[in-house]
Amino acid sequence: MTHVSIIGRGTMAQVISGLVEKSGSTVEVFGSADSGKPVTGDIVVLAVPYPAVAGVLAQRAAQFDGKVVIDITNPLNFETFAELTVPSDSSATAEIAAALPAARVVKAFNTNFAATLASGTVGGTPTTVLIAGDDADAKAAVGTLVTAAGLRAIDAGALARARELEALGFLQITLAAAEKLPWTGGFAVVS
Amino acid sequence: MTHVSIIGRGTMAQVISGLVEKSGSTVEVFGSADSGKPVTGDIVVLAVPYPAVAGVLAQRAAQFDGKVVIDITNPLNFETFAELTVPSDSSATAEIAAALPAARVVKAFNTNFAATLASGTVGGTPTTVLIAGDDADAKAAVGTLVTAAGLRAIDAGALARARELEALGFLQITLAAAEKLPWTGGFAVVS
């Protein structure tokens, strides 16, 4: 059984926590008041906004050595909704992986609105979690967790593909913020 | 009634030609043997692979002045399927727009597999064409054409968003090429 540590207490943290429980794995959740408590999970979910990731890494980077670390962030400029805040030839995941050379970093969940993770459906199509990373075992572990929670998982390729997953997340958020898509909908994956 | 010129005779050119006819507009199609024949459409669809666009522009750029030009390309490296061939802070559409300062260039159709344009559905969800560009009237004209053909259209924002549309197209093609998605499926837009 997998033990999962979730850093963050926002909507996505809560929804992913629920998925972990549904999958039959155990979960521990860390808020900002828990900075002194070390993570013990085999899988760690960075479920904080991208600007808060640097602070988490400053505090906990060594605790992530050897673990699977899931980056769920969409590094948007939330003031303008017009750009990402990471270099155009990089991604939040690539930046995090560079800061955590002893961890196995994967991108996942950033293309899923919280409501579609909770409901398991995007307009009638089963919710699919796209997973990118360079460590096949790490991706498989995340995929197993996702499918055990009743969702679909697709290996979207190498860590370099996090750039496209973040573009997809960016586009989906801007369209929902502009009320062109509902937060219960968005991009469904028809596989 | 809109008159549409389609440059290209491949699958996407054929499918888009069918959509134009279905919409009640008229269409003319240009193959490589038609280089001497000028385009007469109000809307021009560049339905050739991205590496062939430069040749079309070299031949016809002046003919596109004042027209709506639709870029449908996905500028993938089709040898590696690992990268786009345009600079990471740009897009095929931005490059084409820079080469056609007197035309009104929009991105559209690059996130739609041909089969889903022809069938009008992605796994039961109506096919949606995402349109990006800086000219509102040009985007509206393309949207009108798309909806008259029985599909849905969403204004995806400024021309700068073509970068994210190309990332989406890239991701969708790599997943289909890896047999993780069917060419009749992919990303459906639940709006």
Automatic annotation (TrEMBL), chains A, B:
Swiss-Prot/TrEMBL keywords: Oxidoreductase
Stored Gene3D superfamilies: NAD(P)-binding Rossmann-like Domain
Oxidoreductase among keywords: yes
Pfam (any one): F420_oxidored
Highest taxon in the source lineage: Bacteria
Domain Pyrroline-5-carboxylate reductase catalytic N-terminal: 41-75
SUPFAM superfamilies found in the cross-reference section: NAD(P)-binding Rossmann-fold domains (SSF51735)
UniProt-listed PANTHER family: DUDULIN-RELATED, REDUCTASE
Protein name, UniProt field: NAD(P)-binding domain-containing protein
